[in-house]
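Sequence in, structure out. First:
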Amino acid sequence: MRMLFWLLAAIPCFANTSIVSIEPTQMQAKISIITDQPAFCTYRASRGTAFSSNLADLNDNGNTDTRAGALVNANVHLFVLGTRKGNDALAAASTYWVGVSCGSDTEVSAVFVTRSIEWATRLPIRSI
């Protein structure tokens, strides 16, 4: 019995938080997280390929799952970064870094690019 106790005590208990997907538009990005942590997740994001300072959206509207628009269903967390107004919107065709930490897990991060704005029309041009 003592041997079983030491064997179970030696098994590490790893937490598991991961960014499953990032679905960017021209002004927003939906971030999907899976975690085994019961606590809310905290988000950091900045423009570029590394963290420099939080985006205006996170400063103005909150940076956790408790903000409006964020969804939590058991171990799945959905967070929309960027809004469709003013300084809180993401810039089109730009690179962003995002980091997420849930509960006691260490931060996981990813880099994504927002979609570009299509300027050309897709309709056929008729001659006069």
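Second:
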Amino acid sequence: MGMTTDELYFKPRLEVVNETQMAQMHEATIDVLEHTGIRIAHPKALEIFSGAGARVDGDQVRIPGTLVEDAIRKAPSRIVLGTRTGKRNVFLERDKSYFGPSLDCIDYLDPKSHKRVRFTSEHVKVTAALCDALPNFQWCMTIGMASDVPADIADRVVARNVFEHCEKPLVFCCKDANSVKDIYEMALLLCGGKDNFDRAPTIVEYIEPISPLVYYDPAVDKLLYCAQQRIPLINFPAPQCCGSSPATFAGTIVQANAESLSGLVLHQLVNPGSPFIYGAFTTIMDMRTTIFSYGAIEMGLMTAAMAQMAQRYRLPFFGTAGATDAKFCDAQAGAEAALQIFSAAAVGSGLVHDCSSWLDHGSLVSPEFMVLVHDIVDTVNHYMAGIPVTEESLALDVIHRVGPGGHYLQDPHTLKHFKNIKYSEIFERMILEQWEAAGAKNLEQRLQETTLKKMDHRPEPLPADTLKTLDAMQADWK
């Protein structure tokens, strides 16, 4: 054929906005920041903004476009995260996607009884170990909720339980800068000190501006601390179409962009080059129920547009996919999660959070949903691998050898490559008689069995002296 043996590769790609639209949304974002600005009352932040040339009028800060552009240039375009053992496993850059579940929530859906109960610190041990067992989840997240421990220390207890039961990088929410410091100290202990942490951070802090366009003091405290310590920081507003942001998708994206980038400006003024992750949870208010929707197709659409903006800015992105508004792990849950995951992977969405476990618009954790969505992620990853074209994959010699009327079943080429096909542990393809002979189990039964089996996994335990040090740390938490 005259072809080389180099692999010809094309990654499937989705775009939901074009370059002209992104330029218009960026210009609109600058207009918002320069003319409307943000509300922020934090004295140190106001001092920093004023000193850099922003227009400060009481608690209203108007940010020049030049400061925004300068912050985008200074922020790193690549962030590498690592496991608690130091393995670098997440490379946030360009259009790569890494999926991770949120491990804690208000309620827990027991996979044995299917009863809904309040989430406790023991449940996070289950979800963390399950995440550790699922290889297509490269990281995990906590919001610091556990009904059985005092609220003042729940964020750190939950984080500690994750550290003990999952080796993967942790994105965490917490109440204040003191909690960030405590969780950071645990991370330093586990990874072997600051030099190791800086090479491959094991934790990422998550904060939220309040939509529309407001920063509250505890979030600013956390932002300042993370910038100073070079702890990767996610600044992630959650504007809701028709409620806390405009009813139009472009208007919501513009506001979300202004909210995330305003935090970037402050962050980079504190410590230029400190790792920052951009993004927003752009979704809708369901006008029939008033819920903040986790399953709306518009959420996936706007998140995809935000991911493209991140790539335009060359900023790491925090995305959302794999969640649902369904109350159970049912057809609605699977459909909503699958559409979101496919969109996120095809556009390239960085750290993709809330990917599995969260049902009922962000109020319920389900191990079974984690396992189902993990299988969906595996399927989508298989699709995103594309179709490699090489002399080996074109298989001309095989086609010539088998010839008309032959078959490929026992050919060495088939034995070499048939495992490249995706085979699911949950979705079945048996003929009816085989399915009946195997017990006639439906999807829910297969999913439950698979989930309970995977829940037996335990990571390598931490050394006894490390656990003793963690106990001493926890004794001082306030």
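Remark: The chain is about 45% helix and 15% strand.
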